[in-house]
Design goal:
7 helices; Galactinol synthase 1; 362 residues; Glyco_trans_8; Nucleotide-diphossugar_trans; 15 strands; glycosyltransferase activity; GNT1/Glycosyltrans_8; single chain
Length: 362
C-alpha cells in the first residue's frame, strides 16, 4: 500500500498520495506514471474490479469530509453513485480533523480514502460570518491533485439520482494552458435569490439578479443548458460540484493568492475566491448537475425545476436530510426532497446489513 493511504477492508484499491504542495516549491507530473496505469470499473453494486495487473485511478469522483457530521452524507453519496452505475469510483478526501471513528466507518465500506492538507487563507481576507465555510477552503486542494487526469469534486450533502458520467467527457482547457484559457473548470451557478433573507448576504443578491431567473420562460432549455452569462449581474459559482483537470500552475496561482496581501471579501469562502480569480473563465453547467434544493421552492425557481430531470441534488443549508431522521431512519422533515435521500439511505443500510457492515450512528 502506498504511504499515507488508508487501507480499505474490501475491495483493495490504491489511490496515489497527494504531493504535499504547500511544503514543496514545485510539483511535476510524471508522464511515465500516467502511461503505466489502468482504469477501474464497478460491478452492478459498485464493487471495484481491477482491469489488468496494475491499477491506478486517473478519473474519479471525490468528496471532502472534514468532520464526522457529514459522514452519513458521504456514505449515501457513494451508494448513490454506485446505484446509478457510474464507471468511476468515489475517493473520500479527508483532513486530519476527521476523527478515527469516521475514517473507520468509511474504510469499512470499501471507499478509497486520501488524506489532504487542511488549507486556510491569510487573515487578511474578510470571511463569512458562517462558521461552516471555514473548512471549505481545503476543497481548493483538489486543483493540486495532479495524480488524477480528471476529477469531479462533489459536496457530501449531495445525492446522485441519474448517471452523469458524461461530465467526464466535457471539454476543458488542458493543463498546458496553465489556467489562461476560458474553460479552466466547470461548475454550476449559485442561486442568489436569498430566499431565507439572510442579512449578511450581499445586498444585490435577489431573484431579479439571479441567473436562473432568465430561464423561467424556457424551462425545457434549462434542463440541458446553463443560464447565459450576463456581465451586468453577479456571476457567482456554487462549488458543490467542480469538474477540473488538476494543474500545477492553476493550483500555485490559487495558493499564491491565498498567501498574498490582496484584500478580498469572501462571503462564501472558496467559491467567492474561484468566482473572482477565474471570472469569465469557467464553464457554467445546467442546474440539473448541481440542483440546489431551494431552486424547487415556490418563489425561487420552481418554474425551471423538473424532478425527473435532476441528476444530482444538493442539500444546501441546514438541516441536512440525515439530521431529520429517527433511529430507524424514518423521515420527519417538512422538505419533500429530503425523502429522496432517506429512501436511498435506507437502501444503503439494508445492503450493508446483508454484508455484515456495522450500522453508522453519527
Amino acid at each position: 500500500m502506498l504511504k499515507g493511504l488508508t487501507q480499505s477492508t474490501t475491495p483493495p484499491i490504491k489511490v496515489p498520495l497527494i504531493a504535499q504542495a504547500l511544503h514543496q516549491s514545485e510539483i511535476t507530473r510524471s508522464k511515465s506514471f500516467l502511461n503505466r496505469g489502468t482504469y477501474v470499473r464497478h460491478d452492478d453494486m459498485g464493487e471495484v474490479k481491477n482491469i489488468g495487473s496494475f491499477t491506478r485511478v486517473f478519473i474519479v469522483w471525490s468528496s471532502l469530509v472534514t468532520n464526522i457530521e457529514y459522514v452519513p452524507g458521504l456514505l449515501t453519496l457513494d451508494y448513490s453513485l454506485k446505484k446509478v452505475k457510474s464507471k468511476y469510483p468515489l475517493v473520500a478526501l479527508y483532513t486530519d480533523q476527521l476523527p478515527l471513528e469516521a475514517r473507520t466507518a468509511i474504510a469499512a465500506r470499501g471507499i478509497p480514502m486520501q488524506r489532504i492538507d487542511f488549507l486556510a487563507p491569510k487573515s487578511g481576507l474578510e470571511h463569512s460570518v458562517e462558521e461552516r465555510f471555514y473548512f471549505c477552503w481545503s476543497k481548493l486542494m483538489v486543483f493540486g491533485l495532479i495524480e488524477y487526469e480528471r476529477l469531479v469534486l462533489l459536496d457530501s450533502d449531495m445525492l446522485v439520482l441519474q448517471n452523469m458520467d458524461e461530465l467526464i467527457e466535457m471539454e476543458l482547457d488542458p493543463p498546458k494552458l496553465a489556467g489562461t484559457g476560458h474553460r479552466v473548470f466547470a461548475a454550476g451557478y449559485a442561486c442568489i435569490c436569498n430566499p431565507l433573507e439572510k442579512p449578511h448576504y450581499p445586498k444585490d443578491w435577489s431573484r431579479e439578479h439571479c441567473p436562473f431567473s432568465a430561464q423561467h420562460t424556457t424551462p425545457l432549455v434549462a434542463q440541458t443548458t446553463a443560464p447565459s452569462t450576463n456581465e451586468k449581474l453577479p456571476n457567482i459559482l456554487n462549488s458543490g460540484l467542480l469538474l477540473i483537470n488538476p494543474c500545477v500552475s492553476i493550483f500555485n496561482h490559487i495558493i499564491d493568492f491565498l498567501r498574498s496581501d490582496i484584500k478580498l471579501k469572501v462571503n462564501f469562502a472558496e467559491q467567492s475566491l474561484l468566482s473572482e480569480l477565474f471570472h469569465g473563465r469557467w464553464v457554467p453547467l445546467p442546474y440539473t448537475y448541481n440542483a440546489l434544493k431551494t431552486l424547487r421552492w415556490k418563489g425561487v425557481h420552481s418554474e425551471i425545476w423538473r424532478d425527473d430531470c435532476v441528476k444530482n441534488i444538493h442539500y444546501i443549508l441546514t438541516p441536512k436530510p440525515w439530521e431529520e431522521i429517527d433511529a430507524e431512519g424514518r423521515n420527519f422533515s417538512n422538505e419533500p426532497t429530503h425523502q429522496w435521500w432517506v429512501n436511498l439511505n435506507v437502501e444503503r443500510w439494508e445492503m450493508e446489513k446483508r454484508r455484515g457492515i456495522p450500522r453508522d450512528f453519527f
